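Reviewer 2 asked us to include a model.

Predict the structure of this chain.
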Amino acid sequence: MKELAIEDMPFPLLRAYIRFDEEVQDFKKLHRLLDAIEVLVKVHTVIIVSDYFSRTEPSEKLKGLLAAGLKKPSLGIWWQFARDICMEKMENGEDFFASGIESFVGAKNKGHGQWKGALNEAMQTEDNLISFRNKYAHGATPSDDECRADFTKFEKVFRELILGALHFREVCIVGIGDDGKSLFPKISAVYNEAAKKVPKGPEMVGRCYALRQDGQYLDLHPLLFLRSQDDSARNPGFFFYNDLREKEANMLEYDACGRWRDESMRKDLLGAYPIDSWKKHTDSEIQATIDRLTEAFKGRVSEINQILEFIARPKGGPLLIWGGPGIGKSSLLARTTQALAWSSKERMDENFTALGVVEKVYVVKYFIRRSGQTNDTEKMLHHLNDELEKFAKTKLDVGYSSSEMAGAFKERMRRFANRLKEDERLVIFVDGLDEGTDAVGLLESLPREVPEKVALIYSSREIPLVRSRIWEQMDRERRSEIIVQPMGQSEIRALLSDFVNKYALEEEYLLRVVSKSQGNPLYLKLLCQGLERGDYKLNDSVGLPKEIKSLYDDMLTRYNSEHNRALEYLTLLAQAKFFLADEVAAALMHCSQAEVETIVYICRESLFENAETEAVDDYQLFHESLREYLIDSKPGETEKRKRTFAEWCEDWNSGDKTKLSRKYAIEYRIEHANEWKECLEKSRKNSEVECWNKRIVDAMEDGNFRRELFLSCGHAETLRKNIRTAQRILLSTGENNHPRVLSLARIYQEEPLLLAQELIEELERSAENQDFEKVAENAEFGTSAKQKAMLALRGVWKKSGHTTKTHSIALSTKMNDWVKSADDEDLRDLVKLCSIVTS
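Predicted model (structure tokens):
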């Protein structure tokens, strides 16, 4: 049998092979084997992906695959890129740059429709290379005997693979040296003539190519790059693209375990693979697969199996997951949700075995966040009802008040539970109860009990309000609780290894990190980012931050050194009631939008961008603990921002405000005014308190403002909440106000219905005037995708029952998005009956 000669291996693979072959220490040799396996897969993927995109207009499927997986590809995702592209090219009868690579990656057996290349077999059999790699990358600590058995088994697999990669006999990988002229590594004589055709020059420094003996070359940039690892231009290394960060692309070199982040590489990657514009091609099946293969989540197998076991039990019931700030409650629920979308085999591969015979789990989830305005009772109940109705199909009305919506949700659960089969379950996830304690009626509206086959899972910090108002009211016979534990030593080692040189990591330093962090994932995440940036030094135990507050102190110091208004911007976000758009932040700070964008760029790692608004750049703080840190440690600054918001929103009708600024000011005027008023009360500034009380009440007695508020929000929740605020002020300031309180009560009940009717009439007038852009704009007032679509349909429906034919791009585009998001068969049928043109 022919074998690939060692000197014919592509240089990155050759170096990984030599490092593995020469290592003698058991722990390091095992991990050098894992590195070599990764390099073997990535070399193939880089060549196949680069070949495909250099000659082919990518298919919709592959656009969707890369859009979902390229931001942070794990080994499994790298492999999926190679396999799926290889399959598509072979089905289309296309040739490959590296002849024979297709039969190694996945040769098709026409008789059985299967792909049986050697690498494919090694990556997809029951004991495959991905599961072997993940076993040691995710924090598992098998016994020495098990490690030795794994090593013996997979070393044999790897050696057979690498020696069987005969397609590399006529392909080498080279990079352009620092002088822009030389090639690295030095090539054998058979490539001399071919090398003359490779583009060279100062602008090509570091660029990598796959080179054939016949003179053909393939540009591998930006998935592979040659870079000197120190200023003296010695020790050049091949860096594989690793993942996309907020500002840079992160590159990884295996030989010296080097890491490198670069802004220009990020631009090059998005230029070559415009994954943001490809998002629409990602379907739910692709996303579920990518989620399964994503390796950002470390450990927690035991806790996830506890949750799955609870979901599987036939009697159902409520479960409360407790945990301190930053301990990973939300990540745990998110990972559990992902696992429920996988097949049983995929769950078994990740050791999530506790569902037993349950085959199908229906999931409804909601995440409560103060700064995202999801801590609103009626908004939450709308969402829960809409999500459950997608598969419950009860045709029940949602209701108008909180009590009606809460009742509708319970009835939906009951009806759907009665239809569940023995191997089916329904699970309701509500995360962040502690962040909803300030919302009137939110905790009270949540169910405490559920029917059989339904799991009700809440998560929260362990605070008295949640314990007394939720936990203590649950059925003692059916309720359960889990306390999320800190990350263990092996999980912390695995996490650090994603950011630092795992071969240089000292055991004493690891133990010190375990002690300092107390296993808190948020502390560890911030520490790892700091180690990667160079803010902290690997193995410097003395320089370790004492606590999360110290990490935030260091972060703020760094931001302020780069821009003197960074603190102002962050404290603005700490007081914002929703994601804050750059243009709104600029108006509040009285500066240019360009300056805000500069500050955002500096602070990006501490921000979370709104995924629902692709056309607008708007952000909130990435974690509630950062908001609390800013409020506690910078009280003077955060108090200034309270006043800034209150006064700026009070001037909501100013002609200077943009559409976006005016919308924010209208919707959050009363909240900001009331918050600033409460701040003044603490300072006992009674005359100012009286002034702000009057402003709040006057605003809610102003019919023009109420109308603007309803139209801006598109629903009655905020209007009614603000009316209650005004009523409380009136009741607290004297008995003479009772008639005004009663007048507001009547407005509370009647006006939303009148305004809703007015909106429908306006929609109809817009349609009759053929102003379908206005119809689309007004329909945005709905609280959910389904409601927006129904408003648009109502707008184009004439009183005769016929529809107005429209070819409006604005309306049809939005309608497509709403219908897709709503995922409702009845809605699809209604849209088909209408003459709105949809794709």
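The two ends are 55 Å apart (CA to CA). Residues 738-768 form the longest helix (31 residues). We have added this to the supplementary material.
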